[in-house]
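Provenance

Sequences were taken from public entries as deposited. Structures were produced by running a predictor on each sequence independently, with no templates supplied. The record for DUF1275 domain protein from Suillus placidus is shown for reference.
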Amino acid sequence: MHARSFVKNSFGTFNRIHQRTASLKSLGVPLIPHKGSLPSDLDIFSISENEPELDDNPSGGTFDDPNILKIIGMNAAQDATSSTLPPPAIQNRFLRYSIGKNRRDSEDGASAMVRLKKHLFAEVDGEQCTAPLSVYCFMTGFIDSVTFSAIFVWCAFQTGNSVQLALALARLFNGQHDYSFHIADRQALCSLITFIFGAFIGRLGDKLGCKTRLWLALGTFIQTLFTMAAAIAIWKSHQGSVADARANPAWTNVLSFVCVGFMSASMGLQGIMGKRLNTQFTTTVVLTTTWCELMVDPKLFDIRRIVISRDHKIMAIVCLFLGGFIGRVLIDSVGSAATLGIGTGVRLIISVWWLFIPEKQVK
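Predicted structure for DUF1275 domain protein:
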């Protein structure tokens, strides 16, 4: 009897609470107020004595509806579960700022890489390459002065070396049957082979773009490494710098051959890079063609205005002559190793220089 009365009273209280909760929602009043925040007439937990109790059976019959008990149990379980839920996650302002800053930094980094790649793979303007190509010609005379002073072999002019090897082969048929391989011929052969090897390295530029800033800077830096290796080799050889006669070269040991090989390879690479740019400086290592083209230039004597086809050829000749002159002066002053060390520094400057040559404008 007491249990049925308790259930009946609980159900009546639950219905009254539900009615007042709906009223509070319509008035915009919070459903979980703190103490003293609501007037007494809106207190959902104070039940007036004048309000009639709801009874499922006014005649005093038994309360036997099991669905009501299930509803009460379900609401009680929901109340218990809601009380154990974690507080809502709040994203503070600093966290939002950090996420936005990281996103902007990543976007800026990606755009910087795109700009750098575009800059490196842009083709240079051949008309703006006059300065570095002039220094290329200077280095031709500079390097050749070192090898010719020591062993009378040109590491850039392979025409003479080719003819020298032809003469060495002809000695086999002169009646004296001289089968000896003279050291001058061996040095000429070493220079020719390594020159071809350096020119073959220049074919890598066809993969990267033979006129791009990246290849021009990288290729010149490889020349720098070759020149540095030659300087170290001749320094460790402990040999002289100037030969008294062709029959008595200053360089004869293995390290001197290594020096000749690295210098010739650097000139072969320089020649193929200069040729790929297709300017009036041609290969920057051969002046025979340059002299011929200069002599047949139709505007050779038109001295009242600038003629690129004529003036650039004259610059190439003058720079090569100046390089040979300065190279010999340095050899007499500081020796071959130090001279090649200075040449290494000049090549390094050219390597960086290519990165700042203006790109070719699309017409």
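The CA atoms of residues 72 and 78 lie 10 Å apart.
The longest helix spans residues 93-120.
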